[in-house]
Design a protein that fits this description.
The chain is mostly helical. Helix content is 73%, strand content 0%. This is YrhK domain-containing protein.
């Protein structure tokens, strides 16, 4: 399975990656309240940000592919078998 087909076939994966990234980002942000946890907070902040970015990129590619195949939202696809 190619990366493109993975992205197209599994949109929920991107949502889960993004949510996990958000949780890690949040935990890292809270850990900045204590100086003893600053190093861990920095790494969680970076890892969480990366997860959020991956989730957003995957979702953007999924939407682009869906629109490329089906046409823009609100427009019937050119190959609509029901309406010709």
């Amino acid at each position: 399975m190619s990366m493109r087909s993975f992205i197209r076939e599994f949109p929920t994966v991107h949502l889960v990656i993004g949510v996990i990234g958000n949780v890690i980002f949040f935990v890292g942000s809270v850990l900045f309240l204590w100086s003893w946890a600053e190093q861990l907070a920095i790494w969680l902040f970076i890892i969480g940000s990366f997860g959020m970015m991956l989730g957003a990129i995957g979702q953007a590619i999924y939407i682009h592919e869906r629109n490329r195949l089906n046409g823009p939202p609100g427009q019937r696809p050119a190959h609509d078998p029901v309406h010709g």
